[in-house]
């Protein structure tokens, strides 16, 4: 007979075990010469044995096995991680779905993880950081006008010798003739004019108008 106030076994509520459905795990990898693998693991079971089984399937030695770990959506998974720690939960109907996801799909009970090495993981992290950071805008190039090309010319006269000049495309023929008179010490009173390829040049014209003129060509100077 039970004493007053004692709790009998029949009065204790039975605890219903938490649902622990099987999860299908697809393991991919970019490690050279590896093959994918599909395994089934319960929601609460850790992934250490899965990693070891995958490495054994690839024929890895212990050193290589120790260097391999899993990632899920870019996040590193340690051996103590479970499918539940990936964000999978079971709803009131026993269906598995990602936490905070309001849409259920039968494929939610299947997850894809990747087997990587630290080298691959660090490379992915750098690439992800590069994509997050805005690319620096290129510095504007200095707005510098290109210096006009200067041309070497030779002014040739019959009686006063030659004069050499360097002038720009906007230099007028009148200015070239006037400068030549002073340099060659042509007597005052002479009225010069220039010829190029036998054609008389308009004093108001410029060097830019001589399309066929090349560096070092000759302009003949004559006098009226």
């Amino acid at each position: 007979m039970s004493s007053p106030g004692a709790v009998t076994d029949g009065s204790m509520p039975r605890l219903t075990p938490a649902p622990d459905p099987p999860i299908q795990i697809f393991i991919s990898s970019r490690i050279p010469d590896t093959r994918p693998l599909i395994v089934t693991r319960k929601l609460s079971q850790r992934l250490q044995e899965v990693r070891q089984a995958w490495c054994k399937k690839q024929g890895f030695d212990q050193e290589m096995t120790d260097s391999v770990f899993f990632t899920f959506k870019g996040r590193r998974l340690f051996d103590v991680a479970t499918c539940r720690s990936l964000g999978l939960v079971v709803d009131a109907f026993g269906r598995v779905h990602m936490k905070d996801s309001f849409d259920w799909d039968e494929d939610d009970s299947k997850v894809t993880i990747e087997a990587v090495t630290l080298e691959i993981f660090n490379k992915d992290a750098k690439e992800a950081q590069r994509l997050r950071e805005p690319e620096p805008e290129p510095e504007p190039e200095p707005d510098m006008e290109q210096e006009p090309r200067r041309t070497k010319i030779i002014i040739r006269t019959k009686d006063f010798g030659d004069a050499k000049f360097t002038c720009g495309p906007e230099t007028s023929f009148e200015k070239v003739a006037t400068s030549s008179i002073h340099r060659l010490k042509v007597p005052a009173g002479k009225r010069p004019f220039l010829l190029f390829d036998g054609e008389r040049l308009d004093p108001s014209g410029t060097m830019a108008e001589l399309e066929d003129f090349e560096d070092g060509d000759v302009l003949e100077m004559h006098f009226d």
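The first strand starts at residue 22 and ends at 29. Residues 19 and 90 are 7 Å apart (CA to CA).
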